[in-house]
Amino acid sequence: MSTPLAALLLADGRLPTGGHVHSAGVESAVADGRIVDVESLGRYLLGRLHTVGLTEAALAAAVVLRPGSITVLDVEADARISVPELRAVSRRLGRQLVRVAGRCWPHPVLATLPPDPHQPIALGAVGLAAGLDAATIARVAIHHATATPAQSALRLLGLDPFAIAALAASLTVEGELVATEALAAAAGPIEDLPSRTGPVVDIAAATHASLTTRLFAS
User: Fold this and answer.
1) Is the pTM of this model over 0.85?
2) Greatest CA span in the chain, whole angstroms?
3) Domain span at 36
4) CA quadruple 94, 99, 100, 102: dihedral positive or negative?
């Protein structure tokens, strides 16, 4: 498989990595009224792009640039996720991604990953296995940062799918800027990698399990 097609496969939500059961915080945001329509979803996605999106894209790109530091980068990823529930989700998604990649792109780098690596660390290693460069992996991470919550909102609120597609398209220019920022950070000192999150989102993640009815695991 050529590397451009590998990137498309990694970005495809139909790849069985388990992401479809997670809402990236959208279910809690819908429950407490922070997301009610396409406009409020757009604000949520923009915030996620510049927080979790930037952080995860930088970590994933850093793995591609320095595969000998995977263990250290996994520790850095852990330090950047303050909520235990989100740490568990990240490692669950990382484990599933590696499991799929082992069948799609068998490569020695996958054996160097720690047990249950964080999702962006796994993504970077899988990118290496698939022959992708750091810039491409940063873009894939950015894509997931917006596509996962957007599709979750579509299911939860029954929004117009054409409007959701247009919203995602409207964020691609901003997403490219964030991917460029992430790539630049990935080339710098590991300890200076971005560490951005949203306090309200973190609090909601910690209480998500208490929702009386839930469609998503997180």
Assistant:
1) yes
2) 46
3) 3-189
4) positive
